């Protein structure tokens, strides 16, 4: 499990880079109202981060637990996406709370919120999404 957690941490860095880059682009060049800056932009950036991190999970971290079939890939993506979308609500809440309390830049608030989500993501992936073949 430690090896998977280390890989998961590397996956998390890739997810943070994607999520934060997209968030910065959206809030700098496209969205400027409160709703689009603090709700819509983080939702879009988070979803893109989910897609990238899922691909890393499926083909690198838990590749020994998957069936490498299109239907398996899509089914697990739906489970992974659903689990992480539940946390999106918490992430947005944390992002705005950190911003309101400390007045950090939105990108810093986002990175802090994403660090918390990494712990949830690992355990959800390890125990509920990419289940060992003998446990299915």
What's the helical proportion of residues?
over 70%
Task: Return the string of H and E elements.
Answer: HHHH
Give the number of helices. Answer: 4
Low-confidence stretches: none
Structural class: mainly alpha
What's the shape? elongated
Number of domains: 1
* Biggest beta-sheet profile: none
Mean pLDDT: 88
Distance between the termini: 18 Å
Number of strands: 0
- The Rg value, from CA coordinates, equals 15 Å
Query: What share of residues are in beta strands?
Result: under 5%
Structure description:
- The chain is mainly alpha-helical and 136 residues long.
- Helix content is 84%, strand content 0%.
- Helix 1 packs antiparallel against helix 4.
Can I get a quick summary?
The protein has 136 residues and is mostly helical.
Please describe the structure with a list of short key phrases separated by commas or semicolons.
mainly alpha, 84% helix, elongated
Annotate the secondary structure layout.
Elements: H1 2-30, H2 34-61, H3 70-102, H4 106-129
Helix pairs in contact: 1-2, 1-4, 2-3, 3-4
